[in-house]
Amino acid sequence: MDSLARAKPVTAGSHFFSLFIGTLTWIAFWFADAVGKGNPDAVFLLIATPVFLIQNFLFGLVPFFLLRRSAPMEGVYRFVFFIAIFAPAVCLSCLAGSHWIDGFSDYSPYFPSPKPAFVDRFGKALSEHWPTILAITILGGLVCWGFDRKSLLASDIRRVRVKARHLLAASLLTPVIAIVIVLTCNQYVVRYRAQSAAGDRPYCILVPSASSVFGYQVATRTSQLSIFNMRANYTLTTGSMGGFYATNHAILVLDNPTEYKSWSYRAENFVRDHPRGSFNWNDCAPRRNFVETLN
Q: Quick check: 227 pLDDT over 70?
């Protein structure tokens, strides 16, 4: 309890260094996504990196001044404070700040004009990008703690040094293992959800086509249902609309009676939604236990 009663302020160096690493990681994710979608404005993200850094440094000051003197003195309590309290507060503050600034402009390729309210846009970002937000939060917390406790990681006392390094290694491996499990096992969740939704009804699963931006193809392999492959096709326009998603992530076609459901990564399930793109009913031959026919 003494470590909880006593406090040692978070240093400005550890805070700003973790913000720097977190912002660069966020830009790297955003840049990779833009390049993957063929967005010609991807280079803009690299040019605007100094602006994003300044923006996050400013919005990150709010939780820094509010929480910096609340950090426990040492031990596991201080580590938990960085990972579970300080880093999430900083990350959410920066994310909220970026959406607040974004609200001054009505243009966006992702929202109609005028844009929805701040709460709606912020909630949408949290629900759709929570894996990336979580990864950056954990990374930022580890960097902040590592910088703050760098003396322990290089301590002359072997017991202290080993304990600190084991704690850091375990913290790095835990989210990596969790993300790998999610990425590799999601295809089996899709199979289970499809079979559960269909029951005894004939059905088939359509996934976005690799050769047609607006088209679909019938899934023939379980690997096509993985999070790496089962992604909605994104396309750009030549006008001021920017880009948009031309298809759903996947469509579950049910027979007797005819019904369509689209895959939602937010719900991790097939939900009732209007199908995007175009597909020919003749291309899909619904059958009972369709997932059992996948290779």
A: yes
